[in-house]
Design brief:
Radius of gyration: 23 Å
Pfam family, one: Sugar_tr
Keywords: Cell membrane, Membrane, Oxidoreductase, Sugar transport, Transmembrane, Transmembrane helix, Transport
Largest sheet: 2 strands, antiparallel
CATH topology of the largest domain: Growth Hormone, Chain: A
Subcellular location: Cell membrane
Distance between the termini: 52 Å
Number of helices: 19
Structural class: mainly alpha
GO cellular component, one term: plasma membrane
Order of helices and strands: EEHHHHHHHHHHHHHHHHHHH
Helix content: over 70%
Strand content: under 5%
InterPro entries: MFS_dom, MFS_sugar_transport-like, MFS_Sugar_Transporter, MFS_trans_sf, Sugar/inositol_transpt, Sugar_transporter_CS
Amino acid sequence: MALIIQAQSAISTAPVSINRRYVYLISAIAALGGVLFGFDLVIISGTVPFFTQYFELDEFQTGWAVGCINLGAAIGALLAGRLSDSLGRKRLLMGCAMLFALTGAGTGWAGSFPSFIAFRMLSGVAVGAAALVCPMYVAEMSPAPMRGRMVSFYQLSIVIGILLAYLSNYLLLNTGANNWRWMFSSQSVPSLLFFVGLFFVAESPRWLIGKQRNQEAEAVLNRIGGRLYANEEAAQIKASFAQETALAAARTSVSDLFRKELWPIVFIGVVVAVFSQAVGQNSLFSYAPELFSQAGMAQDSAFLQSIIIGVINLIFTFVAIGTIDKAGRKKLLQYGSALLCLDALALAGAFYWQLPGAWVLAFVLAFIAIYSATLGPVTWVALSEIFPNRIRGNAMALATLALWITNFFTTASFPIMKEYLGLPTTFGIHAVLCFIYFLFVRARIPETKGKSLEEIERELTRLG
């Protein structure tokens, strides 16, 4: 049933009838891309002890196997913007869905380590592309009164994907010698659901209008909000394209990011992106069962504790959603980095003094809770706010690239650090990184809550 939502537009202030059921359907199907994002990144956590034994890998090869997906994701993010403009949002997402399905099975049943790496990196390409296109598609399809909620729903779906990956690993643990192959292959099931679901949604009306397919765009908008809504939204989208054409000559290039007056802002964004991945959460998400096993827990118990990590991650993401507009971005980043520093020190101490597994579990869950309520979701909000309009696209691309590369190095280096430095020193290093980030947030990042982009730009430029 279509419900009445008061929608505001530049042409009319009359209420329009928004088909919320269809908007929710669109968002739910697009959210499967987020589920696959989280699922694909974390599913490897339960497979590490099995494929490393099968391929007879050392610590360097293990780190490469776990981290290489992030290099694929960086490539996917770089390609996705241009491909989504040429192929369309829906068609590219269908390609991502098929790539998720093929690479899940391909990784699981790889006969050699090089083919395992190749499929894993191709899976990363799908991750990087979906991470960029899914929220963009949801934002372009959702009416303004529902847009924030729908995009937040996509972010939540990533956390659900992480939880489902842990659950899948636990359920498939005792399926025999090929258990790790079935763990990877399980990714193909939601991938095919995503592919089929995309047949039931339309292409983005903004992309259609950009390709001069105005009648198709108006039909989509009409289904979302009726004829009045369709007329008003189509007029605004056409006007925005006309304005973009007029301003094309004034657009910035990548080199403009390094201009003296803009670089301080870009630098802050890159640092925020880098430290969001360097503080230690990747070690916990990607190697949780191994950490719990090293703390003395039985294998079944270690995999069950990983599910608890996913549940905590989900619960505390809701905490972030509820507090970010009240507490503010800077405060959450500052408190989060400080608490993560203390928790990383506690983990270092737990492994140094070989405390019982219950203590390790408590400190790991506390770390995930703090990260999920602060740095994890706040990072993306901060990045979306600190870059001025004229450089946002290029600056976000640079920050995202830095994020994926950092994710690769932190994930790939963990087994090496664990072997050669030991877990106490490894988590001690994470504590130092958290403290450095705390100092940086305190000194360089202003509060962006409630400020216009122009105010933020002036303040950041002055701080630079």
